[in-house]
Amino acid sequence: MSNGYSDELTLDRIDANKDYEPSNCRWATRKEQQNNRRNNIIITYKGKTQTLAQWAEEVGINYHKLLIRISRGWSAERAFSEK
Questions:
Q1: Can you tell me whether residue 56 is helix, strand or coil?
Q2: Binned average pLDDT, 10 residues per bin, the chain of 83 residues
Q3: C-alpha dihedral over 15, 13, 28, 54, to 10 degrees?
Q4: What is the pLDDT of residues 27-38, one digit of tens each?
Q5: Burial class (CB in 10 A: 0-12, 13-18, 19+), 52
C-alpha cells in the first residue's frame, strides 16, 4: 500500500524496452499500460507526442477512423481536423 498499490492497478514497466526492476516499475491502470506498449503508433502534432489512442480521445475522433486515415498517409493535421 505504501508504494501506491490498489486493486485497480497492475505492475507496469516505465520503459517497455527494459527489464522488470524496481527503478523501471510502477503501478498503472490498464489504460496507462495500453499507452505504454512498443507497438503503439506514436504521433507528434503541434509539438505534443502521444499515442494514436490518446490523440483519438483528445480530438474526439474514433480510434479506428484515425488509424485508417494515418495508414492511408494522411497528415496528422488533416486526420485530426476532419470530423
A1: helix
A2: 76 92 94 93 97 97 98 97 88
A3: 30
A4: 999 999 999 999
A5: buried
